[in-house]
Design goal:
The complex is a heterodimer of chains A (113) and B (114). Chain A has no helices and twelve strands. Chain A has strands spanning 3-5, 10-14, 19-21, 24-26, 32-38, 44-50, 56-58, 64-68, 73-78, 87-94, 102-103, 107-112. Chain A is an all-beta fold. In chain A, strands 2, 5, 6, 10, 11 and 12 form a six-stranded mixed sheet that branches. Chain B is mostly beta strands and 114 residues long. Chain B is 0% helix and 53% strand. Chain B has no helices and eleven strands. Chain B has strands at residues 5-7, 10-13, 19-24, 31-38, 42-50, 53-57, 64-68, 74-78, 87-94, 104-105, 109-113. Chain B is globular. The chains are: A mainly beta (113), B mainly beta (114). At the A-B interface, strand 5, strand 6, strand 10 and strand 11 of A face strand 4, strand 5, strand 9 and strand 10 of B.
Chain lengths: 113, 114
C-alpha cells in the first residue's frame, strides 16, 4: 500500500526564514502527491499537487514542492515565512485509480516573530 | 462557486446513540469522500461515493456507513457510538475529471461522544 512519512511533527522558524517541511512517499509507481494546509478549526486547503506534469510544482501563498523520484521525496518549501503560515501541513498520496487519499501524520509549523 | 458545506458543525452525543452527518459538495462535483481526523490516528479515509454508489471503502467497522443522493449530496451515519468515535469528520468533493483529481474539503463536523 502507498504511504507517506512526514519527518518532524513540529517545525519552528523565524519570520522571514526558509520553510522546509519534509515528506517521503513509498510507491512502486509514480503517485499523485498533494500538500494540504489546515488552520485551527477549519478543513483542509490544497496548497499544491504533483501529477507528473512537472517535477517542480508551484502552489498558493508562495509555497512550492519538488518531486524527486530518486529520493522518493516531495518536500514543501517557502523562501520566507510569514506569521500567517502558522498552521498544520499534511502531505498526502493518492493511490493510482482511487480517490482515497492517504495522509501523513502532519507537521505543525510555528512562526516566531 | 460555493464550497463544500457540512452540517452540523458541532455535535455532542452519548455512547450507544447513532448520528447522521451531512455534506453538500461543490456544484457539479459528483464524487464525495469522507475522512475521520483524530489526534491519535490522524486523517483516515472512510469511503467515497460516486453516482449514488460506494466506490471505495476504508478500513472502518460496519457501524460506519454512508449514502449519496441523486443531487450528489451525501450523508454518513455512525451507529452505536463509542467514545473513540469522537473526531472531526471531513467531507471532500471532487469533479471526477480523472486521475489526480483535487479533493476540496469542507470545514468538518466535530463529533464529541460522551
Amino acid at each position: 500500500a502507498q504511504s507517506v512519512t512526514q519527518l518532524g511533527s513540529h517545525v519552528s522558524v523565524s519570520e522571514g526564514a526558509l520553510v522546509l517541511l519534509r515528506c517521503n512517499y513509498s510507491s512502486s509507481v509514480p503517485p499523485y502527491l498533494f500538500w494540504y494546509v489546515q488552520y485551527p478549526n477549519q478543513g483542509l486547503q490544497l496548497l499544491l499537487k504533483y501529477t507528473s506534469a512537472a517535477t517542480l510544482v508551484k502552489g498558493i501563498n508562495g509555497f512550492e514542492a519538488e518531486f524527486k523520484k530518486s529520493e522518493t521525496s516531495f518536500h514543501l518549501t517557502k523562501p520566507s515565512a510569514h506569521m500567517s503560515d502558522a498552521a498544520e501541513y499534511f502531505c498526502a498520496v493518492s493511490p493510482t485509480g482511487r480517490r482515497a487519499l492517504t495522509f501523513g501524520s502532519g507537521t505543525r509549523l510555528q512562526v516566531q516573530p | 462557486k460555493a464550497g463544500v458545506t457540512q452540517t452540523p458543525r458541532y455535535l455532542i452525543k452519548t455512547r450507544g446513540q447513532q448520528v447522521t452527518l451531512s455534506c453538500s459538495p461543490i456544484s457539479g462535483h459528483r464524487s464525495v469522500s469522507w475522512y475521520q481526523q483524530t489526534p491519535g490516528q490522524g486523517l483516515q479515509f472512510l469511503f467515497e461515493y460516486f453516482s449514488e454508489t460506494q466506490r471505495n471503502k476504508g478500513n472502518f467497522p460496519g457501524r460506519f456507513s454512508g449514502r449519496q443522493f441523486s443531487n450528489s449530496r451525501s450523508e454518513m451515519n455512525v451507529s452505536t457510538l463509542e467514545l473513540g468515535d469522537s473526531a472531526l469528520y471531513l467531507c471532500a468533493s471532487s469533479p471526477d475529471s480523472g486521475m489526480g483529481d483535487t479533493q476540496y474539503f469542507g470545514p468538518g463536523t466535530r463529533l464529541t461522544v460522551l
